[in-house]
Structures are given as C-alpha cells and as structure tokens.
Write a structure and sequence with these properties.
20 helices, Serine Threonine Protein Phosphatase 5, Tetratricopeptide repeat, repeat, mainly alpha, elongated, 53% helix, cytoplasm, single chain, ARM-type_fold
C-alpha cells in the first residue's frame, strides 16, 4: 500500500514521500524497522507561492503562530530551541550569558568614576596588621587564666591564634611563664603542658629560646615579686628541654655567658637538673603531683598528718593554708570525716573543742562547702556500726561532738534527723506489764 503524505509547517512546506508497503500481520520487529526507514528517507521539498498551488491542497496548520519559533524544522531533535536560545541573530542569548561578558568602562560615560576600584588601575595587596606587644600581653592574660580553670590546650591555642602572628609569638611563651610564677605548682605543671602543646603550632624552638632570654634578663625584677623565681625558671627551662621544645645547647651556651646573679643561678640549676642520672625521666614530675591526680590513699594520709599537726601546734591559720594547698575541693568530705572520727576516738573534751573550732573556721572561710560538710557527717553516721566496735563510747562521743558543732555552725536537717536517739528510761522492771507506769500516769492526770 503506497501512501502520499504532505507535511506542512509554518512556511507551508509541502512534502511528498513514497513509503514502502507494510504487510499486515507482520511482527513488531518488522514494523519498527519500517518506521526507521520511513524516517530516514524523508525528503522535504520547498515550494514557492509564485510557482503555483501545491500539488495537494492543505489547510493552514494550527501552529501557524510558531513562525518565529527557533525550533528546528527538520523534524529531528527534542523540540527545544537551538543552542539553548543563543543561536541566531538578534536573540537574547543563553540565560546567564550576560554575566560572562566583560564590561569595559568608557571614560566618556557620564557615570564614569575615575576613582573607582574597578578601573584596573588599583592593585590590592594583603596587609597583616600586627598588634602591639602591650596589647598581645593584655589579651593573652585572660586566655591563660581561663586555661588554668579548664585545662583545654586546644581551646587556648585557638584563642591565641586570633590575635598573635609568628613574629610576636614569643610574647605568648613569656607571658605564660610570668603568670605561672605567681601561681601554684599545679599551675606551673599546666603551663609546661601548654608550652609543649603549642610548640610547632604557635611558636618554634627559636621563639621559646628568645622568650627565656628575655625572662633571664628580667629575672632581677621578677625576684622582687616572687623570691623563688630563679628556681622556678630553672625548672621551666629543664622541663622544656625534657619535652624537646628547647635544644640542650641553650643551657650549655648560656652557662659561659656573663649573666646577672639570679640568671646565673637559674642556668646553673637547670644544667644540674639535666645532668642528673635519668634526669629527663625525673623532669616529667619536676612540679610534683598535685590536686586530684594523687592517689586516694596518699590524700588520706596527708589529711591525717594535717590534723595531727594542727592538734600539736594549734596554729589554725597554718591548718587553713595546708587545706588550701591540697587543692581537692571535691574531696573535702574526707577531711570532715577524718576530723569527726578523730574527735570520737580521742574521747577528750579539749580535743573536741579544738576540732570543732577547726570545722567552724573551714565553714566560715567557705573552704569547705555546706554540701561537703554534711556529706562528711553522713559518712560517719553510716560507719557507726563499725566504729562502735573499736570505740564503745562512740555514740556518746558523737552526740556530744555534734552538739558542739551545732552550736558553732548549722548542719543540715538530714544530718540531725539521722542522729541516733538516746535509749528510753525504764520506770520498773520489764515484767511488770506496765501497771505501775499506767498508775503513775493516772496520778499525773
């Protein structure tokens, strides 16, 4: 079967095509192949209106309004505009193409600004503004004091990097050591750890050496505020050498120089520490082990020695200082426990009064919090079943000591409620059936 088709588009193009005969009843594969051949051998014939009417009269296509469309006319494609709408003359171009065009300013333009930064005659360069040494020291002090509270070296390093450059990083090391000289040995240990963690990240070995040189020069002034500054500085130098933050030749070269007396003492002591047998291993604990890092047995032994020394000397201020140097506020309930236990075991009214004064002073100075105080008394009450085996009069002595303490400071209601009550008084023998007791009550009525 031969079919003549005329395809008309917006330009009234008539097309004649001879199609091959398709046998009815053929399979889907034959129909598909024939369809491909039909599309492949399409021929388009353009006609002119002056040549006469087209061979086959066709009505006006319904898509006559597409005459300005940019879609392809050959029947192929997906029906999208050619070149994404960017092809042809007088078109807007592809969406976003206006952003890729380089705009050249015209000097004759009325809106032309000769001082604009986009004219091409302005060159931008990176300028790093360095802070003054006084400002660096002022900003670093709160960071160091905050580090002594939380102990996070990463947080401290991030805070330092916000305002310190590589040329002024030695001021950070110098400030860390100066502040640590006025604090406890545990803070000196934290300062050594901070310097070790910041090495290679914030400052180099050269910066650390330069910081120690400045500290050695200022050591005569530091001794006025901290008498042990020379000893402490020598510990810092030896510890930095042990942590591989400072080369050993730093100490060796400074030993032969003409230094001030405190600096000479510090260098000589640092050289002695490094020359000891297994000195580098011992320098890891040069600041000692303080705070909650110590074992519990060691802390209990120090608390017991502290109480015995206080009972012997009677110096309350020295006892308060020793309690503060323990640096274990979370373990003060053990101090209260040992104090109450000592008062129960001694069976001495003068010792009880002295220990009661000790607890009252701890409470008044807020060295021991109320929670830690109550917790210490509750621990004694829980262990009374074991204490009474060694001290038969433990309940009587505890009752008397609690009365003394209650008169000096306030204990929690939970402590007073758990205090053992006194035994009842017998009116008559247990086998009287309560007759005499009932008779006495009637007489009272």
């Amino acid at each position: 079967m031969e079919v003549d088709r005329v395809v008309s588009d917006s330009e009234n193009v008539a097309v004649d095509e001879n199609e091959k005969q398709v046998v009815e009843g053929a399979g889907d594969a034959v129909a598909s192949h024939t369809e491909k051949l039909r599309r492949k051998h399409k021929k388009y014939v353009r006609t002119n209106s002056k040549e006469g009417p087209s061979p086959v009269a066709t009505p006006l296509p319904k898509y006559r309004s597409w005459k300005n469309s940019r879609r392809p006319r050959n029947g192929h494609g997906r029906g999208l505009p050619k070149k994404g709408g960017a092809g042809g003359k007088g078109v807007w171009g592809a969406p976003g193409s206006e952003l890729l065009e380089e705009y050249v300013e015209d000097a004759n333009d009325p809106n032309y600004d000769s001082e604009a930064v986009t004219n091409g005659d302005v060159e931008f360069k990176q300028v790093i503004v360095e802070a003054d040494p006084e400002e660096i020291v002022r900003k670093s002090e709160p960071v160091i004091l905050e580090y002594f509270e939380h102990g996070d070296t990463n947080a401290a390093a991030e805070d330092f990097l916000e305002f310190v450059t590589s040329t002024r990083s030695h001021l950070i090391c110098e400030t860390i050591i100066e502040i640590a000289l006025d604090h406890k040995l545990s803070h000196c240990e934290m300062a050594s750890v901070l310097i070790s963690d910041l090495y290679g990240r914030l400052f180099s070995a050269k910066d650390i050496g330069y910081a120690f040189e400045r500290l050695l020069d200022k050591l005569p002034d530091l001794v006025l505020d901290t008498p042990d500054a020379a000893v402490l500085l020598s510990n810092f130098i030896a510890r930095c050498v042990a942590d591989d933050c400072l080369p050993p030749k730093f100490v060796q070269t400074r030993a032969g120089l003409d230094l001030n007396p405190p600096a000479r003492q510090a260098i000589h002591r640092a050289e002695t520490l490094l020359s000891m047998k297994q000195g580098l291993v011992r320098l890891d604990n040069i600041w000692g082990v303080g705070g909650g890092i110590r074992p519990v047995k060691s802390l209990i032994r120090q608390i017991q020695l502290l109480l015995k020394e206080y009972l012997t000397s009677g110096d309350l201020a020295e006892a308060m200082r020793c309690v503060r140097e323990l640096e274990v506020p979370h373990f003060h309930h053990e101090l209260v426990y040992e104090t109450v236990l000592l008062a129960v075991e001694t069976i001495n009214s003068s010792v009880e009064e002295q220990l009661c004064t000790f607890l009252a002073e701890l409470r008044r100075c807020v060295i021991v919090t109320p929670d830690q105080m109550d917790r210490g008394f509750l621990r004694v009450l829980e262990d009374m079943s074991d204490i009474v085996l060694d001290v038969p009069l433990a309940y009587i002595m505890l009752d008397r000591f609690v009365e003394r303490c209650t008169a000096r400071f306030r204990l929690a209601d939970s402590v007073l409620a758990r205090m053992p009550t006194r035994g009842r008084k017998r009116f008559v023998s247990e086998g009287d059936g309560g007759a005499i007791k009932d008779h006495a009550l009637k007489l009272r009525e």
